[in-house]
Write a structure and sequence with these properties.
Blueprint lengths: L2 E6 L12 H10 L5 E5 L1 H4 L2 H4 L9 E4 L2 E4 L1 H11 L8 H31 L6 H23 L11 H11 L11 H12 L1 H15 L5
Parallel strand pairs: 1-2
Antiparallel strand pairs: 1-3, 3-4
Helix pairs in contact: 1-4, 1-7, 1-9, 5-6, 5-7, 7-8
The structure holds S-(P-nitrobenzyl)glutathione.
The site of S-(P-nitrobenzyl)glutathione (GTB) has 11 residues, from loops.
Length: 216
């Protein structure tokens, strides 16, 4: 069985691990599964061959023995179901870990993406100064709630799971704004995720791609 994922040939973040292939690489590393990476230019992502894998022309995608997936939620969930190490065996604990994956993607990530849009993509618009505090406050509200749940625990629900993998991946995107560091328990939670050997391997692999000299 060969697993192939797609990633940016050159990520806009220069290899800080913020592009979404990092969470898929991390899941594969946690599961101990080897994988190969097909690197794509922005142009190639919009060509028919890639659109057949992801109709939205985005990375990452995941291929394994005739199965093709897109959406990191679906990909990480598939990896976690297929291989041991990312979801608990006990049915209730498993359902709760899956709930945290959805919470990361549906309840926390949208606020953080809005903040990125407001700060980076729309930062020069005339209305940006008015909008930014509102968007920032929505992120703070979610992080306050998440921090109140986590308290001083290492992980969201007992042992590390795909729920933590997804939540840490999502929270990392809030760090450049400085808001993550306003919540020391969450900043420490993210640091625990980043310290995991599997995360470090995933981060190093995407960094190597993004710091390699251009081909030719
Ligand atoms: N919901 C989808 C998923 O979870 O898989 C979203 C996938 C997605 O947004 N992919 C982005 C993409 O392909 C790359 S990760 N964008 C190109 C396009 O849409 O044409 C998003 C991303 C990009 C850059 C940074 N960065 O520079 O920090 C971080 C994250």
């Amino acid at each position: 069985m060969t697993i192939t994922i797609t990633a940016f040939e050159r990520s806009p973040d220069g290899g800080k691990g913020l592009a979404r292939d990092t969470r898929v690489r991390w899941a594969l590393e946690e599961a101990g599964q080897p994988y190969t990476v097909r690197l794509l230019s922005f142009g190639a992502m919009k060509e028919a061959a890639h659109l057949a894998l992801n109709p939205f022309g985005q990375i990452p995608t995941y291929e394994e023995d005739g199965l093709a997936l897109f959406e990191t939620g679906a990909i990480v969930f598939h990896i976690a179901q297929r291989f041991p190490g990312l979801l608990p065996e006990d049915p209730h604990s498993r359902a709760r870990a899956i709930t945290w994956m959805f919470a990361a993607l549906n309840t926390v990530e949208p606020t953080i993406l809005d903040l990125f849009t407001a700060r980076v993509l729309e930062g020069d618009k005339p209305w940006a100064a008015e909008r930014l505090p509102l968007v920032g406050e929505r992120v703070r509200s979610r992080l306050r709630q998440l921090s109140a749940h986590l308290k001083d625990a290492d992980w969201l629900d007992g042992a590390f799971s795909a729920g933590d993998l997804m939540m840490v991946s999502v929270l990392l995107r809030a760090r450049p704004s400085g808001i993550l560091d306003e919540f020391p328990k969450l900043a420490a939670y993210v640091a625990r995720g980043e310290a995991r050997p599997a995360y470090r391997r995933a981060f190093a692999a995407q960094l190597a791609v993004n710091t390699a000299p251009p081909p030719g």
